[in-house]
Please model this.
Amino acid sequence: MSNQTPLLEVKNLRKYFKVGSGGILGGKKSYLKAVDGVSFHINHGETLGLVGESGCGKSTTGRTIIRLYDATGGEVNFDGTDLTQIHENEMLPYRKRIQMIFQDPYASLNPRMTVTDIIGEGITTHKISEGKERQERIFDLLNRVGLKREHANRYPHEFSGGQRQRIGIARALAVEPDLVVCDEPISALDVSIQAQVVNMLEDLQDEMGLTYLFIAHDLSMVKHISDRIGVMYLGMLAEVAESEELYNHAQHPYTKALLSAIPIPDPDLTRKNKRIVLQGDVPSPIDPPEGCRFASRCPVASEKCRQVTPELIDRGAGHFVACHSV
Ligand SMILES: Nc1ncnc2c1ncn2[C@@H]1O[C@H](COP(=O)(O)OP(=O)(O)O)[C@@H](O)[C@H]1O
Ligand SMILES: [Mg+2]
Model:
């Protein structure tokens, strides 16, 4: 990388949702700690994969970065500006530079808008082009995502799930973003077209110089697209490393369990360990206990793990692990 300053640097990010009343009857105020102290960076042109089981806080992390949610604490430094500290009316340029691709290609497109309206909305808002030039731009985007000019005046219901996701991708790219938060962009698609969409995202990244935060619930989905991977567990990062390093030298017991559960034999993967089946319950993210959040399911947890939250520490060459047993 020529530019050494990361495009995005997230520091100790927290997002708590208030649950429970805390009203006049004195009900206790509780917080659901969806994201609880997450730190990572993404360099220019890089893809960081973010994986973990459903409910561990991946989408909330993405949504807090783009300020769909206000952070409870921490920093979101984007190209040198902490987005948690600026006023809403200063956000417009960043709403152009950071885009999101959503998981559900059915719910994320307005059914009453044509493809031209959907893709063109941001082009108009951000004054990128108008008139004939705008229309040509929309045709070009359709072409880039593997759709046709004829599709421009149709409505979302006329398309398959895969095609809708392509429309969502064209919408995100229409405003020439720097960073794209891809929130499980292939999870809802047929297995047969998942690889096509991932390959297309990779090609578009190269052509347009994009940086990706690529969220998935499964390690097998992020391996090929990610330069580095972060593994989340209950609102925290357990491990972050370069993809190959993570696959071949996972250190956190949770990452090892996830890797051992990948069902299809992967020729690239040297599986030294047998499948690890995790015992124990996933704790609630509401008022979670002290100590390591994984302790209740961890095969090697000690007393210390139940009392002291392990910090995410660099164990060498950018391989970060949050575990007392490492
Ligand atoms: N708007 C919200 N209000 C309250 N709780 C929420 C909200 N959004 C998400 N959560 C909770 O936060 C946790 C993390 O959710 P989410 O970020 O969607 O996880 P993931 O994307 O990893 O599946 C879950 O326990 C979820 O129920
Ligand atoms: Mg999610």
